[in-house]
Amino acid sequence: MRDIEEEIKQKLLEIEAKESVKILIAVESGSRAWKVESTDSDYDVRFVYIRKREEYLRINPVKDHIDWQLDEVFDINGWDVKKVLANVYKSNTTPFEWGKSQKIYIKDPLWDKIYENFAPYYNKKNAIYHYLGVAKSTYTKFLQGDEVKYKKYFYALRPLLTCRYIEEKNEVPPIEFDRLLDTDIKDELRQAIDRLLMIKKDTKESDLNPQIPVILEFIKSEIEYHSEILKHIESKSNVDITVLDKVFLDSLAVTF
User: Fold this and answer.
1) How confident is the model at residue 1 (pLDDT cuts 50, 70, 90)?
2) Helix (H) or strand (E) holding 74
3) CA–CA dist 111, 99 (Å, integer)
4) Contact 36, 177 (CB under 8 A)
């Protein structure tokens, strides 16, 4: 029987060797991390890596990402730690999500020291704006017909439930779908989502199925609601970037 997890770990070791980098964290980031995978879901592996100190001192900029593999089974790519920190400063949601993944393939102790500095840079308005945009795009492009791919429901439901979580708790949200469901929603909707989860886990992602009106109406109403709420959330001033500068410089002290 194929051991996918061991295969992923082996690929990560190959990346370290071929690219001369040290991987600080490697996690699952897609539907498998959200715990809503289908029978044929691929593995969305994301990693953060660091290079040797001298690599960052070159005249020509060092490459800040590694695209390793993309096929029907694996989607594997990663960001340089410097790129991660730059995106944390911008309150990009991606590094925060990677740090919240519970499916971890590799983690170096240095990662925890880096990640513990992220929280002050989380911007509520930026985050809701991002997740709302994902939901709007999914609704417009993929949820208009009489039949839809049920996978696409989650690309609207998850960001909208994330918006709810951020609005209520004003903190970095979890990425697991069941934890985002722990909110005040009507029984009819919850039952429909539970049925949707059961169907999705036993079908292929490309399958078309009839629209589920109660879910579709929730998506539409939440998009309208959060679009209005967003207008009234004050923008957060950028936190001092020197903290992240120090995190980066301290990280370069690592040897490998």
Assistant:
1) low
2) strand 74-80
3) 9
4) yes
Q: What distance in Å separates the CA atoms of residue 160 and residue 165, rounded to the nearest whole number? A: 9
Q: How far is CA 70 from the centre of its chain?
A: 17
> What is the β-pairing status of strands 65-70 and 74-80?
antiparallel
**Phi/psi of residue 197, nearest 5 degrees:** -60, -45
Edge-first strand order for the sheet with 74-80 is 65-70, 74-80, 43-50, 22-28, 104-107
Q: Phi/psi class of residue 63: alpha, beta or left (left: φ > 0; alpha: ψ in -120 to 50)?
A: beta
Structure tokens at 21: 């980098």
Question: Which of 68-77, 82-91, 182-191 is predicted least confidently?
Answer: 182-191
CB-based contact 43:74 (threshold 8 Å):
yes
Is pLDDT at 150 greater than 70 in this prediction? yes
Per DSSP, what are the bridge partners of residue 46? 27, 77
**Per-residue pLDDT tens digits for 82-99:** 999 999 999 999 999 999
Range 97-133 burial, b when 16+ CB lie within 10 A, else e: bbbbbebebbebebbeebbeebeebbbbbbbbbbbbe
Q: What whole-number distance in Å separates Cα of residue 49 and Cα of residue 107?
A: 11
